[in-house]
Amino acid sequence: MGRSDFNVDPARLRRMLLLNTYRELAVSSEHAVAVSILPLLHKDPFDRMLITQARTEAMLLITSDSLVAAYGEGIRLV
Fold first, then answer.
1. Nearest to 10 by CA among 62, 56, 18, 50
2. Radius of gyration for the chain, computed over Cα atoms and rounded to the nearest angstrom
3. In this structure, is the dihedral angle defined by the CA atoms of residues 43, 39, 65 and 29, taken in order, positive or negative?
4. How far apart are CA 36 and CA 52, in angstroms?
5. For residue 57, what is the DSSP state?
6. Alpha-helical runs (H) found in 1-78
7. pLDDT by residue (tens digit) across 35-65?
8. Most buried residue, 39, 49, 54, 69, by CB count within 10 Å?
9. Whole-number Å distance between alpha carbons of 7 and 9
10. Which residues make beta-bridge pairs with 63?
11. Is the pLDDT of residue 17 over 70?
12. Could you give phi then psi for residue 22, rounded to 5 degrees?
């Protein structure tokens, strides 16, 4: 996206995450339903999907985005 604060090779990032036992989380229909009922505090659809995936899968979402953190439950602002 051309952001100067995030210069990463996506293929290398994915490879390194998988090598370090991170797992990929596919988007499910359950996640899609959860997005549809999420309050509209944040308009970015990708971030909204991350929020609902974290909640649905009982995972902690760590973010530096205060708008994402405004959803509260299951989210930690760093």
1. 18
2. 14
3. negative
4. 9
5. T
6. 10-19, 29-36, 45-56, 66-69
7. 999 999 988 999 999 999 999 999 999 999 9
8. 54
9. 7
10. 77
11. yes
12. -75, 150
What's the confidence (pLDDT) of residue 1?
62
- Single-letter amino acid code for the residue at 59: M
Kindly list the domain boundaries of the chain, sorted by start residue: 27-77
Q: What is the C-alpha separation between 2 and 21, in angstroms, rounded?
A: 28
Q: What's the chain's length in residues? A: 78
Which residues have C-beta within 8 Å of that of residue 57, sequence separation ≥ 6? 25
The 10 Å CB-count burial string (b at 16+, else e) for 36-66 is: eeeeeebeeeebbbbbbbbbbeeeebebeee
Given a contact cutoff of 8 angstroms between Cβ atoms, the answer to whether 54 and 60 are in contact is yes
Q: For residues 48 and 35, is the Cβ–Cβ distance under 8 A?
A: yes
